[in-house]
Amino acid sequence: MRLRTREALEGYSFSTPAFLLLFLVLFFPFAYVIYISFFEKIFGYEPVFSGLKNYLLIISDPIFKYSLYISTLYTVVAVIFKLILGLAFAILFAQEFRGRTVVRTVAVIPWGIPLFVVAALFFWFFDYNLGLANAILKALFGVKLFWLGPDWVIPSIIYVNVWKGIPFFMVNFLGALQTIPRSLYEAAEIDGASAWQRFRHITIPGIKYVMLIVCLLSTIWTFGEFDTIFFLTRGGPGYLTHIVPIYIYHQAFSNFSVGTAAAASVISVPIFLALISIILWALRR
Amino acid sequence: MGFKEVNKLKRSTSLLIKKILIYVSAVIVFLWTALPLYWMVTTAFRPEKEIYEGLVIPKQLSLNAISAIFGFGEEYITVGSTITPYIINSTYISIIVMVISTILGVSGGYALARIRFPGKDILSSLSLFAYVFPTVVIMVPIFYLFSMWKLVNSPTGLILALLSHTLPYTLWMLRGFFQTIPIDIEEAAFIDGCNRIKTIIRIVFPLSTPGIVATATYAFILAWNNVLFPLILISRTDLQVVSIGILNYMKADFVPWDRLMAASFIATLPPTLLFFAIQRYIVAGLTAGAVKR
Fold it and tell me: Is the C or the N end of chain A the one with fewer CB within 10 Å?
């Protein structure tokens, strides 16, 4: 019994510094954002309790509705593309071919590059007159696109996110593919299973938990991602790329309305919590 | 031609098709990834006037842009026109963040992995939640509270804010690394009369050095790459970090493309090289639970 108590004391003394700091910089601010979302609060003025007013305000704000819509669209489409292309890349690198190591190393680079550099890089890549993207399009099809103009900006930001995000999917899938025993494929081949059947009944079940975790993590991070879109478009042109994180930023730092910015932050929390709970479940299983 | 030969021919054609398919896909994958990177690197290393000629392949190389962003050969040097102060600030802030989150992460992560105490499972889940949670959710209260606490425009404030992102990560990853050390070795040390601290220093540290180094490195990368906290907490140019330095280049009415790409290239070297050094451990850490059965 005394040993148990001693061990518990050790546990608390080892973990207290970390969690005390986290309380200060994370858990308390998190509680505070919920608290302040029930107050009418402008920078420089005293907060006034206003109940659910902030929530009603942003829910009736057409820009916020659009933000939710465009964030969801952006996230869902980007994650689907990353899933498909990441899996395709992983299957390619599971094959043996000459130059595999070089191509694989290059394919992983986008994961290592900071988001702000990815943004700067594509800002230049997409430039209408001098960018490489239009030079290639012009040489191949004789057309040029306003990549960050109203017509193409949404596909373009999805393209940037997919380009940056594929290696995370690919590397995790490649790791999972290697855990599938080769003998399973050989047995299936002898039994006359087609390539599609092998993919459907051996590959997919073999990596499904990794797929689940990777997709959920990517969904959360894509939905909460601020950097590239802020750098590339600042939410524009107009409000076209005004995703939820940009909406929060503008409410707080352009309109100085802390209350509505807090309400907008809190509204997406239940979705994140649900997704993370599924990840925890999949990790524990 | 007999039945056997036909089958053999079929097999070799399908193998050939497979081979062609593999090489064509490899070329596509290579171009898809490399073209934007090629564009950054070549722009960083070509003379300024060539950029406006619209050439895809550079005629000559030049170090002008790289030396210009460090302030060489410039007539007027003001704070903010060179990248040097940004790089210095980013480096020392990221190092401090790395050191604090590693020390606290090692002690906390060890407790979560090895010591039995009430509330441990909740704290473990909490650190995963905290790591995965998007930082935009606490953007508003961090700015608001840090203004009250006089932590705006202060390196201390930025370091504290960055810790909210890196510390959950080091806690969760190190917990995972410590769990992979066979518990028998530690128990043997206990029986031999080592106390907890001695066991950690003599047994646990040497066995988990790669994991600790990799986790510390990634904490550095996370701090270096962060945009949100310096954006909202730092407005003084002399305190600013490299991510916002890049943003300032992009905000100009006439973007100096060669310098923007040179600065981006320099800013991406430390995190990217470090990332490749530790990539193996990072991947294993995050989805380990799902891969092993």
Answer: N
Tokens at A58, concatenated: 């942003």
* 8 Å CB contact of A10 and B135: no
Q: With contacts defined as CB-CB under 8 Å, which chain B residues touch A137? A: none
- Taking the CA of residue B1 and the nearest CA in chain A, the distance in Å comes to 24
Q: What is the pTM of this model?
A: 0.90
Q: Tell me what pLDDT residue B291 has.
A: 38
Helices H / strands E in chain B, number of each? 13, 0
Tell me what ipTM this predicted complex has.
0.89
For chain B, say whether A73 makes contact (Cβ under 8 Å): no
Residue A160 lies in a domain: yes
Q: Is residue A41 part of a domain?
A: no
Say if the Cβ atoms of B139 and A252 lie within 8 Å: yes
Q: What does CATH list as the number for B84-291? A: 1.10.3720.10
d(CA B43, CA B36): 11
User: Which is nearest to B181 in space by CA: B151, B204, B210, B212?
Assistant: B204
Is residue A229 assigned to a domain?
yes
Q: Does A195 touch chain B (CB under 8 A)?
A: no
Low-confidence ranges of chain A (pLDDT < 50): none
| SS3 state at B71 | coil
Q: Do B140 and A258 touch (CB under 8 A)?
A: yes
Q: What is the extent of the structural domain holding A166?
A: 61-254
Residue of A10, A23, A101, A249 for testing the chain B interface, max B β-carbons within 10 Å: A10
pLDDT digits (tens, 9 = 90+) for B23-82: 999 999 999 999 999 999 998 888 888 887 777 787 888 888 888 888 776 655 554 578
- A101 belongs to a structural domain: yes
Tokens for B250, please give them: 């992009």
**CA-nearest residue of chain A to B30?**
A103
CB-based contact A231 B227, cutoff 8 Å: yes
CATH code of the domain containing A215: 1.10.3720.10
* CB < 8 Å to A126, chain B: none
The three-point CA angle B229-B244-A107 to 5° equals 95
